[in-house]
Structure formats: C-alpha cells, structure tokens
Structure prediction request, 142 residues.
Amino acid sequence: MVIEDSIIIKSSIEKVWNTFIDITCWEGWNSVISNVKCKEKCLINSQTMKCTFRPFYFPINVDIFINEVKEKEKVVWTANKKGLKAYHEFFFKKSEDGVKVISREKFTGVLSAGSGLFLPVKKMKNLTRIFLNDLKKAVEGG
Prediction:
C-alpha cells in the first residue's frame, strides 16, 4: 500500500524546512505524531526517534529510524512494528506559490495486506492530510 499526498505552503523553503526538522516544536503543531523523544533537536541522518501516533482509538508507540536528511530537499525514515514496515519519504520543492511538500509512504508486511483490513487506506490518507495541513498552519501562522 502506498499513501501519497502533497500541499503547497506559502512561505520560504528555509521556514518550511526548519519547522519540519525541528522536532522540539512538533508537539506545538503536529496533531498526528505525539510524545516525540529524540537525543537530537533536529532530524539528522542515522538517528532514532520514539513517538506515538493514533491511527485508531488506541495509541501505537513506534521507533523511527531516520535514513536520510538532505537539506531543504528530502527526509526519509523507516519504521517496523510487528507485522508492518513503513518507508516514508518527504520531498520539499520550491514552487511559484511557495514550497510544495510531498509525502509518500509505503507500507509492507502482513498488516498492510488484505485490502486495508488492518490498516485502512482511507484512515492513513486522512492522517497524512492532517499532518500536511498541520505543517502548513504552523509555517503560515494560522
């Protein structure tokens, strides 16, 4: 299963990038991922981050490994959780209207099979949309 979405944020690439990678401020704007714990202040290569997200009614604690951070261009992270593997890419591209942020997440494993029985596509798309909208509001100030 692949979940992809994008959003245009009316701001500079620097402001979008700095808001995204500064995980110390995620609690203030990010309503999808909570309880973020990390040794570093910002997302960096080969770092592990612990967090919680709530795709259903109960919270799921996840360890995320930051595979790649390419300044003002891309962040890639992976997560494994009993029967589910996630590979998540974020791309940052300058556009006429500001910055286009693209989120692409690929799920594999037993829990992603079966036409979304255990991991509903609609719910995952909605969480991606909320995350991107939260980022937009944080950067644009609204």
